Amino acid sequence: MPSTICLRCLKRTLPPIDTTCSLSITHRAAFSTTPSLSAQPVKKKASVKTGPQAKAGKTLRLAKNKPVQAGRPPAAGERKALRKRIVLSNTNALEVQGLENLTTDNAADAGKLQSLEGHVLGFGNDTVEALRALEAFKPGQGWGLFRRPAALVRRETVELGEALEGVMGSTNVTRQMIYGERGSGKSVLLLQGMAMAYLQGWIVIHLPEAREITNAQTSYQPYRTPEGETIYIQPHYTAQLLLSISKANRGLLSNLRISEKHDLPMPLQSNISLARLVDLGANDPSLAYPIWRALWAELTSPSQPEVEGQFRPPVFVSMDGVDHIMRPSAYLNSETKPIHAHELAVARDYSNLLSGKTSLPNGGMIMAATSASTRPSVPTLDHVLARKVAERQLQNILSICEDLKHQAESAKATQDLDITALEAIRSHNFESPLVAKQVSNFRDRIQRLCYDDRPLQDVQRALTSQEFKIPEWDPYAIIDQRVSDVMESVEVRKVEGLSKVEARGVMEYYARSGMVRAAITEGLVSEKWTLAGNGMVGELEKATVMARF
């Protein structure tokens, strides 16, 4: 059938087709004799030879081509000795005129020591040598800035002196742990305790750094106790500890004789002195631990003053950085599992003393201080410290409640109650948020009842029904029962900052030593006290003395 559309009309509807197609075709000859005009390839840079190239096989080594070493390598233990080097005197510092010393008289009398609160007392030469042997001085404490070692008598020092006075002449044993922020003076407080105990004729034993016991940098070996328990002894560390005990207590140990026979791998004379016994262990690490046990057997034997050489004085034992022995150590057992620090012999003996498992029949004091600069993570110890501090702080609140109850029994109206002590409580002084919130709500409730003049029965009901909760251990976490048992009967004290009176006393000592040239005014004391975090003695020294350097 023919189409109804004209083919010419259909052609007009289509778009025009470009018939001229521009093709770029290059016409070249089959070959050309014209030289190429393309650029030459970039030449590779010559490599600079910095040294002799290694060749396969043997090479010729001449003496003149060997590198010259600038100095000798450090000997074994040289860097550690340099790191622990203590400078206790600065000849360029001024001699403080009228500086009193910590003597036997003022150390044994808490009343005299309290009258010296806020003053700086120096240490005698014999005391300094004993403290140096015990490694009580630490690098970075600023001893080398002054003419001779001295320390501030603060409120905690007076309390420590009272505790030592309570032990003298009795069989009482004080077990105490101090903690606080970095630079609060915990190590210096331990040093003052050692100095006072030494001046009163005590046996002083100090473990300067608990981290050295647990960081797996000294020799150790398993040891089977008579009870069948496996512990790990550290021969070289124990020998070093015995050496420090011998140097610090030489005069006292020389007058004491052994009172019983000991199971030692060597024969002993029947009347050998304790000084000679300690020297044997200090000179031979293989004998160190048996002699360490024999020494403790002698020190914990009953005193017999009527028998020559059988008198046993009180014992002062301290450890700095105690939190390092409240966790697993870096040592491994035969199954490549971490050894708990309480399985190490020295740490085990100290923890038994701290917990009271090992008794001191002649009296003594066990002190421990935590470390805020090298402190590891010890959740169980943190919980125990928080719990004990909360219990002590709540005791003060409960005593205020009892006082208000007695007032309510004899008062006629609510306005007659004296709530000044309750109003003086500040919740920010409580470390536990749980306790701080409870105390704040209780204080506000009692204040509201008194200000609104509510009946006395409402106040009595509020005082009677109030119950305070203390921090509890997380039931989903694993508690270290060994640490919890050791800390059960230990007294805990927090070392706070200095008061402004104490800060002025130590700043005046800095000025008399020539280390502070400005006049010590109330404004300057307040400024430095505030900048030092409310009197942190370490920060106060940095802000006043160290700022010049």
UniProtKB/TrEMBL annotation:
Residues 34-58 are annotated as: Disordered. Its main location: mitochondrion. Belongs to the mitochondrion-specific ribosomal protein mS29 family. This is Small ribosomal subunit protein mS29. It comes from Meristemomyces frigidus. The keyword Ribonucleoprotein applies. GO terms for cellular component: mitochondrial small ribosomal subunit. GO terms for molecular function: structural constituent of ribosome. It is found in: Mitochondrion. It comes from the Eukaryota. It holds the Pfam family DAP3. InterPro entries: Ribosomal_mS29 (IPR019368). The keyword Transit peptide applies. Keywords: Mitochondrion, Ribonucleoprotein, Ribosomal protein, Transit peptide.
